[in-house]
Amino acid sequence: MTRILIADDIATNLYLLESVLKGNGFEVTAAKNGRDALEIAKKSPPDLIITDILMPVMDGFELCRLWRSDEQLKNIPFVVYTATYTDPKDEQFARKLGADRFLIKPLKPDLLIQEIRAVLEEAKEKDGVAKGTGPEDAAGILQEYNEVLFRKLEKKVMQLEAEIIERKAAQQQREAMIKELEQKNAELARFTYTVSHELRTPLITIQGFAGLIEEEMVNGEKNPELKTHVRRISSAVDTLDTLLSDLLKLSRAGKSINTPKPVDFGSIVEEAVDLYSSVLSRHGIRIDVDPDFPPVNADPARIREVLVNLIENAIKYRGDRPNPVIRIGVDVGGDEPVFFVADNGIGIDPRYLARIFNLFEKLDGKTEGTGIGLAIVQRIIEAHGGRVWAESEGEGKGTTFRFTLPPAGTSTDSNNNA
Predict the structure, then answer these.
(1) What mean pLDDT is predicted for residues 146-160?
(2) Which is more confident, 412 or 99?
(3) Burial, 110: exposed, middle or buried (Cβ in 10 Å; 0-12, 13-18, 19+)?
(4) Which of 83, 133, 320, 392 has the fewest CB atoms within 10 Å, measured from its CB?
């Protein structure tokens, strides 16, 4: 069986090369550097050696020089199999030192085996005639060796520097993803706690009054408050149904964004206002709408839902103003258009502006609703790639909700899985 000695300082390279060679019927011995390969070869000469160039202790060039100057090894075929960061001068120098082949990694297995068999066949034809005893001009070879090795090391360093930069970027990306995941986990924990708390409240009401009714029925009592108990249970069920319905809307808010398309924002405003026309009229609320709006890239149904929530919020928190007003408009003086829904209602203490988009956050516990509407607004806007925030000068001074959307004609990388 033909014996092949392979030398490479990278374990993966050794394993792959050894697998290919053994799979084609060769006996293989492996070494981690040129010095080990030379020692192994002197003890038990192989039929052929395949070596990398850049290795610790002794590189492939030095191994080739010593190989060709050794009386016992000089006739054995020598193949250089090195990485792609090579230069034509590398091959010229390897040939000058006596290498039979200079192959570039990675080479397809069938082509590699073809080259090896060709080298072995050439060696048989020479019938013991040495490939060479190494160059005679030792000083010249030493200078050329230093130049080639320096050039090769320089390329290797550049490659390693590029790999370090890539790894740092990948590490930063991983750290950012871990941080985001930790934030999501924290949000999930808060969400789970809040939902369980909010759901438990109406359930306790139902359980309590259902128990009273059961006791009264067992005792045969005719309690005049029975209807009140039933009404309270019914109210708690309605609260629970509303809560679950709003939670469902919230879960769909980011996921159900259709591919944004150019739409007329003004027409979306008209649709949202029409839905509340009777409510606005009944409460004597005037609504002012700017005459012109720029087109945007959006899912019309989801943006209408945003406007509906903001209009409903303005109605709910209008307070006891004698002349309540809601204004829907756009500011185009900055870098991007900023849409807004403003009211002259009860306003918000500036300290709480950052909290109002939190799930179940209700600054006024007396008003109806679950406190999910603004969380839905935030999810939809962010799924479109926009931003949303609130402004208020304080209690009694009204509130303005502002948000951005990508202008029509721009590509939007919307987060449909928000």
Answers:
(1) 70
(2) 99
(3) exposed
(4) 320
CATH architecture group of domain 183-255: Orthogonal Bundle (1.10)
Per-residue pLDDT of 315-331, as tens digits, reads 988 888 788 999 999 99
- Cα–Cα dist 72/45, whole Å: 8
Domain residue ranges of the chain, discontinuous segments joined by +: 3-136, 183-255, 261-404
Q: Identify the three-state secondary structure at position 415.
A: coil
Contact 328, 307 (CB under 8 A): yes
Residues 6+ apart with CB under 8 A from 127: none
| Structure-block tokens of residue 126 | 């020479």
Question: One-letter amino acid identity for 384?
Answer: H
| pTM, two decimal places | 0.46
What's the CA gap between 145 and 106, in Å, rounded?
24
Strands (E), 33-164: 48-51, 78-82, 101-104
Give the 3-state secondary structure of residue 177. helix
Q: Please, which pLDDT band fits residue 233 given cuts at 50, 70 and 90?
A: confident
Spatial CB neighbours of 157, under 8 Å, sequence gap ≥ 6: none
The C-alpha atoms of residue 171 and residue 378 are separated, in whole angstroms, by 30
For 213, the token pair is: 């009714």
**Residue 418 scores a pLDDT above 50:** no
Name the CATH topology of 3-136.
Rossmann fold (3.40.50)
Task: Check residue 186 and give left, alpha or beta (phi > 0: left; psi -120 to 50: alpha).
Answer: alpha
Which range among 134-148, 251-265, 392-406 shows the weakest confidence by mean pLDDT? Answer: 134-148
Residue 65 and residue 21 in contact, taking contact as beta carbons nearer than 8 Å? no
Q: Indicate the class that CATH gives domain 261-404.
A: alpha beta
